[in-house]
Every structure is written in C-alpha cells, then in structure tokens.
Amino acid sequence: MSDGSLRFAGQNVGVMGLGRHGGGVAAARYLLRQGARVTVSDAADAKALGPSLSALADWPEIRWRLGGHEASDFRRADVVVVNPAVRPGHPMLEIARRCGARLTSEIELLLEACPASVIGVTGTHGKSTTAAMIAAVLRHDRRRCWLGGNIGRSLLPVLPKMQADDWVVLELSSFQLHHLSSQVNMPRVAVVTGYEPNHLDWHGSQAAYRRAKRRLLAEQQPGDVAILSAEDRSLDFLRDAVRGHCVRPPEPDVLPPLRVFGTHARRNAALAAAVGQVVGCGRQAVAQALARFPGMPHRLRRLGCYAGRWFFNDSKSTTPGSLLAALDAMPSPTWLLCGGQNKGLKPESLGRAIAARVAGVACFGAVGPLVYEAVRVAAPELPAICVSHLDDALRWCVSRSAAGDAVLLSPGFASLDQYRDFAERGRHFEKLVSELPATNAPRRAAEAPAVTP
Fold first, then answer.
1. I need a surface site. Which of 12, 40, 204, 321 has the fewest CB within 10 A?
2. How far is CA 121 from CA 26, 59, 94, 177, 188, in A?
3. Contact status, residue 144 vs residue 216, Cβ threshold 8 Å
C-alpha cells in the first residue's frame, strides 16, 4: 500500500509532545510525507530532545516550538497529534477542541491506515512480554508479523510494507487507549493480561484508569475476539465490556517448559497460546515458539553469579504486582532493591507483602522512604535500609547477603525520578553488578539455582 491517502495534505497539524521514544518523530515524518504543514511543540527544550531533533533534521519545513506550548498554534490547528504522555484535560488540548481541531494520536494514525489484522495487548503488567510472545508464535507459524506500540517501536514508518494478510501486534498502554477517539477501528483480537490500580497520578482516579483499559474491548465489533483469563477476578470489571467472542486461555500447566520463569510468565504464555489458537496457528508451532522464547530485556533476567550471589534484573517491574510476581519466582533467600517514582499508589500493603517474601530490602528513590516505613511497620526486625540511589542499595544488599543468596532489582515503581526510563535503570544496574569485585569469574546465568516454574 502507499504511505497513506494524503488526507492530511495542506492541513495545519500540530504534533504535541515530540518525546524521546520515537512515536513523535514517526508521526511527524508520516504527516510531512502526506503534505501536512507540521508544527512540533514540546515542553522540553532542545537539549533534552537532542536525539529526536536530530532524527528530523532533514525536514527544515517543520515549525518548532520547544520549551513550552503556544496557544496560537492550537487555535489554528486542523489536527493535533497528542503524545501519550500528555495528561487529560491539558489546557492546550481544550483550546484545540474549542477551535474545531481533530485530536488524534500516533497509534490512531496507524490503526486508520493499517491494512493488516491487528492484535492489541493491554494490562497493568505483562503486556510487553505477552505481545512479544504472540509475535514469536505468529512468526514461528510463518505469518508475517509486525510488533510495535508501547513496546518501543512505532510502526508508521513500515506502513508501506504491510499487506492485508499480515498481522500487527500492538502493546497498548492506558495512556494510548485514553487518547484514541471513538471513531477508530479497534484491534480484531484484544488481549488483557491483568489489572491492578496504576498510573492514578496521570488518570486521576482508578475509575478513569479502568475506563481506559475498557476501551480496547468496548469498541470491538461482534465478530472480534477478546482473550482474558476466566479465573482472574481483577478483570471482572471488563467482562460486561466484551462485544466480541470471549476466549479463555489454556491452563498454564499444560504448556511446554519455558526458558522464561515465574508463574506470571506462564500466564503470559497461555494468553499467547490462545491467540495462536484463535488465528489458526499449528499447535506444534505454538508450543515450539513459546518453549524457545528467550524473554525480554530487563524482565526478570538472570545476570549471573558474582562473589557467590545470584543477580537478577527486573527493572521493567513498575507496579507492586509485578514486583510481587518476581519475588514469588525467586529462590530463597532474596535481597530486594525496590523504589522509584510513585504513581499515586499507597505502599502500606506492599510493605507487608515484601516483608513476607525477602531476607532483606533496600529502598531507594523518591518513593523509598514510604516503602521503607511500610516495611518497618510490618516487620521491625527485617534487615532494611532507605537510601537515595541504586548504587547504595546494591552495595548494602551485597554487604548483607551471603553466598548462594539472590539479589533482585524489581523496583515496583516507575523510573522517572532518576532515570529516563526503566531500560536506563536496568542498564545502570547491570553495569553496577558487572563492576562488583568477585573472587571468581561470573558463572553463566543458566547455572543459576532453581526458581519457581
């Protein structure tokens, strides 16, 4: 297909929030190729946006508005492409609405023009791994498949390569779902991995967060498919939103042995297996793809053994639920590093849950003092410390642990108080671990002690 129907030719289009993860750059390029007059605005300055600006250096016709937004840009806009990070009710969006502009997003631009069948994956945790597993299943069954969305890759640049019999797998965050208009064609297959309160600082309430998640199901068509666990009571609020066929995933214990570990990983694999069944993949191809799936970076990755201790990087853990799932998969005893930026959650119950599962805990970052206090209240005798930075947290865990123990980074909170994203936090942890003094060379991660399947 072509790069679109040039439906934006001659229109004034604002890209609100260039960002640093590629979606804003891809949207700007897509619109410019269609002949739109593009204004890019971002609250960040040029220094913070350096790589994104460099990626658009070959488009001198872009109008730039950096370090803040100007109301005049939104008054004259025909269309505004909204970055997922822009909060609901932003005053510039209200100005654009009042002046008749159409509000859209990078994901909506893709869904409007995509010729392939789309599988959407959302949920509070596990959606990246589940989306990647689904893509692995489809590819192993010799289907052409494109993986993108919140997982970190915009698919707008590859739209011209897509064909009608391809499959697109999109990881969709609550932010992305919130910004979709009511006219968009929702994915034919919708997968929900699970739910717990999250991003309440952005959505404003748990009800608003739930409404965003319901969007994936509530606007499907009768012939579409929704896949969610029948046993997961946290998803009960979604069941009346299902408009298509509801498919139950297989029991996790019928799946083949997996390279990834943890009960939560097997649940994700069961969802991917259900998608394979729905789209007609061969049973053997599904089993082989899941058995070979290597896992995702910063998702409960075994780094190896240093000074007799086993180290695990689970920096992608940005919710209490994902933190507890990681702890439940760990050998005992485990020394936990947790903390980061709070998203409107209360950590009191988390303190009790952590105390019941660890040998010790080092809390760090902006939310560190709150988690530390919750742990101290739950278990006053448990070894615990509150520090500012990850470096100090790791140093303490190494000094207090013993040979054979596990040292786990599973923060349970967002990274934005100290890092650009969870990946930067994970890379920093891996660097710190690699620099630890060790009497012997690190053993391979595959030699790690047994963990819960």
1. 204
2. 21, 33, 29, 11, 11
3. no
User: What is the DSSP-derived secondary structure letter of residue 253?
Assistant: G
The kind and range of the H/E element at 225 are strand 225-227
Is 452 within a domain?
A: no
Torsion of CA 161, 163, 167, 170, to 10 degrees: 50
Residue pLDDT, tens place only, 85-118: 898 889 999 999 999 999 999 999 999 999 999 9
Q: Rounded CA gap, 290 and 258, in Å?
A: 7
Average pLDDT over residues 361-389: 96
- Give the strand pairing for 225-227 and 245-247: parallel
The CATH number given to whatever domain includes residue 363 is: 3.90.190.20
Is 240 found in the same domain as 140? yes
Rounded to whole angstroms, the Cα distance separating 313 from 296 reads 11
- Torsion, CA 97, CA 102, CA 106, CA 112, rounded to 10: 150
User: C-alpha distances in angstroms, 160 versus 6, 10, 112?
Assistant: 13, 21, 13
Assessment of whether the complete model's pTM goes beyond 0.85:
no
Q: Which residues contact 384 (CB under 8 A, 6 or more apart)?
A: 360, 361, 362, 363, 372, 375, 376
**DSSP string of 394-416?**
HHHHHHH--TT-EEEEEEESBST
State the total domains in the chain: 3
3-state class (DSSP) for residue 32: helix
Edge-to-edge strands of the sheet including 360-364? 301-306, 309-313, 406-412, 334-339, 360-364, 384-386
- For 425, the enclosing helix (H) or strand (E) is helix 422-434
Chosen domain end from 104, 123, 157: 104
In a 3-state reduction of DSSP, which class is residue 326?
helix
Q: What is the dihedral of CA 196, 200, 205, 207, to 10 degrees?
A: -30
Considering the domain architecture, whether residues 260 and 309 belong to the same structural domain is answered as no
Enumerate residues 6+ apart whose C-beta is below 8 A from 31: 8, 13, 15, 38, 81
Q: Measure Cα distances from 150 to 103, 128, 177, 319 in Å.
A: 19, 8, 11, 16
Tens of pLDDT, residue by residue over 268-297, are 999 999 999 999 999 999 999 999 998 888
C-alpha 387/C-alpha 437 separation (Å) is 21
Asked whether residue 334 is domain-assigned, the answer is yes
- Tell which residue, 199, 189, 162, has the closest CA to residue 4: 162
73 and 112 assigned to the same domain: no
Residue 117 CB-density burial (10 A; 0-12 exposed, 13-18 middle, 19+ buried) = middle
